[in-house]
Amino acid sequence: MVEIKLDHIYKKYKGNEKYSVTDFNMDIPDEEFVVFVGPSGCGKTTTLRMVAGLETITKGDLYMNGQVVNKVQPKDRDIAMVFQNYALYPNMTVADNMGFGLKIRKTPRNEIKKRVTDAAQILGLSDYLERKPGALSGGQRQRVALGRAIVRDASLFLLDEPLSNLDAKLRVDMRTKIAQLHQRLQTNMIYVTHDQVEAMTMADRIVIMNDGKVQQIGTPDDLYNKPANQFVAGFIGSPSMNFFDVHLHDNRVSNEKGFDVEVPEGRLKILREQGYLDKDVTLGMRPEDIHTEQVALETFPNAVVNAQVVVSEFLGTDSNLYSKTGDTEFVAQVNARDFHKPGENVQMAFEMSKAHFFDKESGATIE
Amino acid sequence: MTEKSRILKIILYIVLIAYAIITLYPFLWALAASFKPLKEIVSGNPALMPQHFTLDNYKYITGTSSLFTKWFMNSVIVSIIGTVVNLFLNTMAGYALARLNFPGRQKIYYTFLALMMVPAQVLLIPNYLILMNLGMLDTFSSLILPAAINIGNIFMMRQFFLSFPMDVEEAAEIDGLGRIATFFRIVMPLARPSIATQAIFVFMGFWNNFMQPMLYISTPKKYTLTLGLQTFTSQATGVRWDHTMAASIISIVPIIILYIIFNGYFLQGVRMDGEK
Ligand SMILES: Nc1ncnc2c1ncn2[C@@H]1O[C@H](COP(=O)(O)OP(=O)(O)O)[C@@H](O)[C@H]1O
Ligand SMILES: [Mg+2]
To answer: Is A243 within 8 Å of A314 (Cβ atoms)?
Structure first.
């Protein structure tokens, strides 16, 4: 129940040379599930903490419902937050940890009890309510931290890597729980993670950051299919997109190591218009756009590469073939039926209509 | 190797036991003497067990003809008030130096450190003059006010708060507490072990203080125990070792009680961060 606007926000920590967050600019309408994603140290936590009011804003304005809140204390922002390091009260039981925020806000006792019990139920903590945090495992503490947030009906939820210490199964489980929670509460959530899978599965919109700078803001679909630059393209998707340093001449891209494929007319037109003819560019291919089936080899006869499999991973429905052509390494994700053993020489077809092209210097998508 | 270390260990234990006996003996002697008549104490008999066991010494000092009970209560009042004031001020000052951002914080901190090197004796005369001008001589305030803070303890609390996890406080702020409420409801309870350690040292300091009461207090009714005890040894009738011993034994009881209460905190290593 709050509209947030981050208006050209910068953060530089005292004593640091560099800005930790540079020109963060975004509108978050009510009820949106926003995920900040990016490698460790890119400024996700810093941004989240500025929204929470735990960190001062060096430059720029933060609005909530149209009001500048740069100087508003955290306690007056009506937020609930899950901290990266749990930050539980060591001297209180699990139940008291979860209920503390409600107690401060003078919620009636039986109401607190009810909400804590419900949250504990959802989080599988019912048996631990009387324990102190010291007697819990990392995953249990993380769930208590989550519980402390969800018992509150705050108007904004901030979650800083809330699932990072859970095992794989529980993580998937909790992901769904948080998504359901968002649907039930109908409030804004800002969720921080370094895990692109979490970002892709949970977000309405994703903010992808690198080195303090927002790289792209968009829906999971946007980020996957229309990455703004090479960083986004490489960060989203697993296995990562393959990049090839190539030279564009006539209607082909190639390198000296024998990699040579034809670029379809549609893509070529754009490249030509942007003046990349006879220039070096970076070609990006998602692993699933590289094929080994016979039918693909026949469909894309002008983009077939002779490759050798180096490592192959069998994943059930798919297999990942880590291969190389000449000196260039790449990975292809193919149907598990097309499994190839390491050392095998395989012909692979590049589905060039799905190719991405990036400026070699700036990494920006050529479009 | 093991043989050698075993011998070393045995030697170590012999030394420690000898040391324990040497330290303990005078105390046991005093305890025994408090149950002996004066004649037996001064007879030079080194035996610990009283030959003529008597409670008269205790009866005398707690009786009406002695001010001992009064002095004991004076010491209790001064020590408790002084300790409580110290705990609050030292803890808050330590917190401020560790956590709050205000101009000159670093300078204040270094000033404190520098002041720590000033010997207490140097301050006796200036303090006396100040107290005189404030008209506070011969009051309990003269014992409490100049000792209302203790830089050593401020320093200790500062170090404690530096290692105190910031995000626990932040969680409290998010949960709806302001800065001051966070301090009293979250930080103070978690600082209990440090505060308990402080409490013991500060209390002992007040309880055993002799110099300040001697200088500032002149009315016998306002004497503290330490000062009062001294009068037993300087009476015209000669040193009343019998009364002195009984009074000394009683005077260490509060320290022992305090130690028993807080000992748990001393030994308790607390997990502050909610993590492994
Ligand atoms: N309290 C701080 N003081 C100084 N630098 C900090 C502080 N917190 C974070 N940083 C720096 O700011 C950058 C962003 O950190 P952070 O927001 O924690 O990244 P993330 O959460 O994305 O991993 C990092 O380079 C980090 O070293
Ligand atoms: Mg972080």
So the answer is: no
pLDDT tens profile B222-260 = 999 999 888 877 766 678 888 888 999 999 999 888 888
Q: Quick one: CATH architecture of A242-359? A: Beta Barrel (2.40)
Residue of B175, B178, B275 with shortest CB distance to A100: B175
pLDDT in tens, A269-315: 999 999 999 999 999 999 999 999 999 999 999 999 999 999 999 99
B39 in A contact zone (CB under 8 Å): no
For residue A239, whether the previous peptide bond is cis, meaning omega lies within 30 degrees of 0, is: yes
Q: What is the pLDDT of residue B272?
A: 46
Mutate to test the interface with A, among B170, B173, B175, B182 (most CBs of A within 10 A): B175
**Atom 14 of ligand 1, nearest CA residue:** A43
Lowest mean pLDDT: which of A4-13, A29-38, A162-171, A214-223?
A162-171
Q: Where are the domains of chain B?
A: 55-275
Read off the tokens for B114.
Answer: 């520098």
Percent of chain B with pLDDT over 70: 94
Q: What is the pLDDT of residue A319?
A: 93
Compute CA A181 distance to the chain's CA centroid, rounded to the nearest angstrom: 20
pLDDT score recorded for residue B268: 55
Q: Class for domain A4-231, per CATH? A: alpha beta
Q: Do A141 and B272 touch (CB under 8 A)?
A: no
> Minimum-distance ligand to the CA of A44?
1
User: In this structure, which ligand is nearest to the CA of A85?
Assistant: 2
Is the CB of residue A75 less than 8 Å away from at least one CB of chain B?
yes
Q: What residues of chain A lie within 8 A of the CB of B165, using their CB?
A: 85, 87
Q: Which helix (H) or strand (E) holds A321?
A: strand A318-325
* Residue in A98, A127, A130 with CA at minimum distance from that of residue A115: A98
Residue B93 near chain A (CB below 8 Å): no
pLDDT mean over B213-218: 92
Residue-range domain boundaries for chain A:
4-231, 242-359
* Ligand 1, atom 12, residue with closest C-alpha: A20
Is A52 near chain B, with CB under 8 Å?
yes
User: What lines the ligand 1 site, CB under 6 Å?
Assistant: A 13, 16, 20, 38, 40-46
Give residues 163 to 222 of B whose Cβ lies within 8 Å of A.
165, 167-168, 170-178, 186, 189-190
**Structure token pair of residue A280:** 């070096």
Give the separation between CA B152 and CA B148, rounded to whole angstroms. 12
| Chain B: residue whose CA lies nearest to A102 | B175
Residue A86 phi, psi (nearest 5): 70, -50
Q: Which two tokens stand for residue A112?
A: 């607190």
Cα–Cα distance measured from residue B131 to residue B142, given in angstroms and rounded to the nearest whole number: 7
The 3 state secondary structure assigned to B163-182 is: CCCHHHHHHHHHCCCCHHHH
Inter-chain residue contact B171 with A88, CB threshold 8 Å? yes
Q: What is the CATH number of domain B55-275?
A: 1.10.3720.10
The closest residue, in CA terms, to atom 11 on ligand 1 is A20
Handedness of CA A145, A151, A152, A156 (dihedral sign): positive
If you average pLDDT over residues B68-84, what whole number do you get? 95
What b/e readout covers B187-202, taking b as 16+ CB neighbours within 10 angstroms? bbebbebbbbbbbbeb
Q: Any CB–CB contact under 8 A between A85 and chain B?
A: yes
> How many other C-beta atoms lie within 10 A of the C-beta of residue A151?
25
Give pTM, 2 decimals.
Answer: 0.82
